[in-house]
Amino acid sequence: MRAAGGSVRGRLRDLVAANDPGLLRLAAGLRTVGAIALTLAVLSLLGADVRLLVAGAIAAMVSTFAIREKQRAAQAVTLALGLAVALASVSLAAVLHSRVVGGDLFFVVLIFFAVYIRRFGDRGTALGLIGFQVYFMSLFVGVSLSALPKLWGVVAIAVASSAVVRFALVPETPAGILERLRDAFRARLAQLVTAQLGLLDAGPDDIDKALQDVRDGTARLHDTAMMIQGRLEEGTSDEAAARLVQRRIADAEIAAERLGLLLLTARSAERADTLTLHLPGAPVPPGGHLPVPDEATATLYRDLEALRLLVLRPVSVGTGTGLAHLRNRLLGYRDEENLPKASPAVQDVFRGIGEAARAVLGLRIALGGPQDDSEDTPSTARSREELDAEDAAIDAGEEAAEETARGLDRPTTRAAVQVAVGSSLAIVGGEFLSGQRWYWAVLTCWIVFINTASTGEILVKGYRRLLGTVLGVVAGLLLAGLVGHHTWTAFGLVLLCVFAMFYTAPLSYTLMSFFVTAALGVLYTLLHTYSLSVLVLRVEETALGAACGIIAAAFVLPVHTDRRTNDLLVTVLDRLADVTEAAVEQLSGGDPAELLDRARDLDQALADLRAATQPLTHPVTPMRARRNTARYVVALLETCAYHARSLAAMAELLPTHPSIAADPRLRRAGQRILRNIGAIAARVADDRAAVEVGTGASIAALLESELPGTSRYGRITDRVLRHLQRLDEAVVGLARPLEVPVAAPKR
């Protein structure tokens, strides 16, 4: 029974870890709710009235979620500075309370500088948020000079409560977050293997869903790998350890994605296109089920289950005889003589399982230290030797310098001007709707500019906030009717809404807006200002604020969606060329480079582009052809990134892997790809550029024609050529949707 219970707890832990990597959303929700609850408890003991309780709750929430730094010392400094900013903000709000014009002008200036100082990083962003939100809180509760001393005390208690919860009750350390992210990566890797099992077993009616599950699992695994990448520097003891974890995470991600492609090929009549794994709605390759089930097929099912078990078994538990047997069997598939008799496509799947098992072994060693090797087979021992040689070769990476823009071209300056203009419009319009609650329009205008960089992004965010607000008003009506004027019941519901708000914020902005508005409906009840007309006014002010933000973004220093996506697309293409060129050069015998860092730069650029295209791919977008084009281009770029990552990973193995040798002929094979990437980037940057994309013989044919009469390449070089060929095809495929001329093949 104990073992069964432990198994259930383990599965539940893995499920939570996979759905909330690093438990970041859970920790954010608990930390904010804890700070609010502690503030309310202290203020209630001091006999504070409801208005001060509401002010304390808002101040505690702001001082908690605004802090974004990863190091505890930096968090403490920012929190101390935030207290000073909050006290100054509430004091100015009290002084300007009776001066309507002066107060409005100062609010606009405060909004400008709150956005402007984001250029100073996380600390500047936090202080700007605290200054704005505390001023807003002062307007919400109706601060006056006579009540100012009490509000100083409330703000101080709120900030102190936030510090207690952050540093004592719900502590957060970079090393702890990184460890939880590693657990999440392991859990998501196991989920992906489960989805791949479903793909292997799916019938004609289930294949589309099974393929979508594999796509989703691959994307979620990649997202977790990117999150780990962002935490490595702070969460590891030294740079060498960070490089080791980075390498093993990349190996596991690439091996898992390749295994999915091999499984798809095994189901198909011909080699599957990588694009199928990256483009939702892409047609499934023909072929239906695997051939009639035989011994090899049954073994394949068994070994995929064994791989999933190998991934799920915690590193700290050790191996055990049974797990060692599974590990040895899977690693044995890296040797040709151990492959079962089957079709070439199915044998490729077994090879992929062997490489995935090797990646999992490397990941376990990197995260848990040396493993028991007493039961190793020769294949397992060889894998360990390769991993040890790779670990010894890892050295420190180089830091890349970044260029910064100046003046009005700097994003923070442009956004500050835009939000100041939009807020001015919101103040004027909001006063016409309500002389008492015009600040709701300003709040919405401010929020739609946070983490947005183009007119399209602001339009989509404004729509989502308005939708969430309308739904939240309905919920607020129901909740307010339930709680009546029961103060602590109402605060309990507010805490639940606040937790849900922070837990769902990274998943859905509409849901976050829903819970915010529902909580406000309860707060209005506590302040005895609740009515249906107030909640309707909330919707009107929200719509006005969103409209003012969109107008400011469209007419004041506008950054159109097309311009932003084109700029980001050029960046992605430049990063793709950088990774491809460095990988091919190293595989051809050139000097080593920091390939994994460059590959992650490519991934980050692609993530930025994917976010920027959301206005084009949103379901409400009326231009369906444009939406489909954007999705197709992003999917092609994801395919390119996968092959570039794979080339980079194999190139990094070159100095230590005994079965990989440099092949100078590869240098020529990559030249056409690089020229085509450069041509597409030039055309995207300037649609008048006279360029064209070249086509011709296959990449393998280019390799063979370099030195006639030389020996044919081996299996490893053949794998390199597959990635180069797929990359070449994907790059040429980008030409059509981006309207780049394609040259006719030379005869």
Explain the overall architecture:
The protein is built from 27 helices and no strands. It has 747 residues and is an all-alpha fold. The longest helix has 30 residues. Helix 11 runs parallel beside helix 13. The N terminus is likely disordered. 73% of the residues lie in helices and 0% in strands.
Would you kindly provide a brief summary of this structure?
The chain is an all-alpha fold and 747 residues long. 73% of the residues lie in helices and 0% in strands. It has helices at residues 2-19, 24-45, 50-65, 72-95, 100-116, 121-141, 148-169, 174-201, 207-235, 239-267, 295-312, 320-332, 344-368, 378-393, 411-433, 439-449, 455-483, 487-504, 509-526, 532-555, 561-587, 595-612, 614-617, 624-653, 666-685, 699-704, 715-735.
Keywords:
mainly alpha; 27 helices; 0% strand; globular; disordered N terminus
Topology:
Blueprint: H1 2-19, H2 24-45, H3 50-65, H4 72-95, H5 100-116, H6 121-141, H7 148-169, H8 174-201, H9 207-235, H10 239-267, H11 295-312, H12 320-332, H13 344-368, H14 378-393, H15 411-433, H16 439-449, H17 455-483, H18 487-504, H19 509-526, H20 532-555, H21 561-587, H22 595-612, H23 614-617, H24 624-653, H25 666-685, H26 699-704, H27 715-735
Following the backbone from N to C, one meets helices and strands in this order, namely HHHHHHHHHHHHHHHHHHHHHHHHHHH
Mean pLDDT, as a whole number? Answer: 82
Strand content: under 5%
Number of strands: 0
Total number of helices = 27
Specify the structural class.
mainly alpha
Distance between the termini: 73 Å
Low-confidence stretches: 1-6, 395-407, 705-713
Helix content: over 70%
Radius of gyration: 29 Å
Question: Regarding quaternary structure, how should these chains be classified?
Answer: single chain
Q: In one word, what is the shape?
A: globular
Outline the biggest β-sheet.
none
